[in-house]
Amino acid sequence: MTVIHSAEFAQEGRELKGSIPLSQLSRLSDLLANTSGEVAWHIESGMDELQRPWLYLEVKGSLQLICQRCLSAAPWQLHAETVLTQFATEEQIDDAEAHDEDLEGILIDPELDIEALVEDEILLALPVALTHDVCGGDDALAKLASDKPNPFAALAQLKTRKAE
Ligand SMILES: [Zn+2]
Questions:
Q1: What range defines the domain where residue 80 resides?
Q2: Does residue 161 lie within any of the structural domains?
Q3: Alpha-carbon distance 55 to 120, whole Å?
Q4: Could you report the per-residue pLDDT of 139-150, keeping only the tens digit for each?
Q5: Any signal peptide, and if so, which residues (predicted)?
Q6: 144 C-alpha to ligand 1 centroid (Å)
Q7: What are the tens digits of pLDDT across the range 51-100?
Q8: How far is the CA of 64 from the centre of ligand 1 (A)?
Q9: How many angstroms separate the alpha carbon of residue 61 from the centre of ligand 1?
Q10: Residue 138 CB burial class (10 angstroms; 0-12, 13-18, ≥19)
Q11: CB atoms < 10 A from the CB of 156, how many?
């Protein structure tokens, strides 16, 4: 288990990388056709212009989901990114999210469990109903419709501000 103090980590502008076997992600593994393989994660951090600590999380991997039409394995490339801004109270999160619809707030956690955070992010990124383009084909490819916004722009903005 990898644990960090989420706010101190960001104040120090630290980065961390790792990988987790899919078989260790118990909430996710129920949704997979096959739990072999692993996901890679990468965290960057810093302080925004309002001196709020933030974490950027990127998660990548090749998953075998279950086709919702034929119920056999459907390969799916996971690539999820998110920027999480940290707050001391739920009230502060609600207030900040009300003023910035792109903001995603989390509570400062002195013992943030990275594996749990990564699993949460994967569960959020999963397509609602994945199906093969053509079921039964040898090279049946999974298609997905995902309208999850890309937080790359937000990260680029944070980095620009930091460099100023
Ligand atoms: Zn299928």
A1: 3-134
A2: no
A3: 14
A4: 444 444 444 445
A5: none
A6: 12
A7: 999 999 999 999 999 999 999 999 999 999 999 999 999 999 999 999 99
A8: 12
A9: 20
A10: exposed
A11: 10
